[in-house]
Sequence to fold (124 residues):
Amino acid sequence: MHTETVSAKALAYVGDAIWSLVVREALLKEGYSQGTTLQKKSIGYVSAKAQAKFYMSLHEAGYFTEEEEAQFHRGRNGHSGTVPKNTDAQTYRLSTGFEALLGYLYMENKEERIREIWEKVRTL
Fold:
């Protein structure tokens, strides 16, 4: 499957799942095993606000490649039609772009790059 033919919304959908899995796996490796604790810790990484912050910090540091930035913009500019009640439209668009970038990397079999992004996020 070519990622050019996959909608930005679908890439964000996949990226959301991948990011959630990366975060949960890392938390388990760190020794967190209680469901409530895992949920509370993961929110700091998977919420729209957190994802928007991660993207902006990495973007400002020039961390992403030109292609990765293009995929982010593709996802950010996609129209979902709705915005969750607990976030503003700008934050939601940034997080959707971040998720689309992750979905793109996953679909392109670039899991190592996803891990690199995770490691960078952990230092923020």
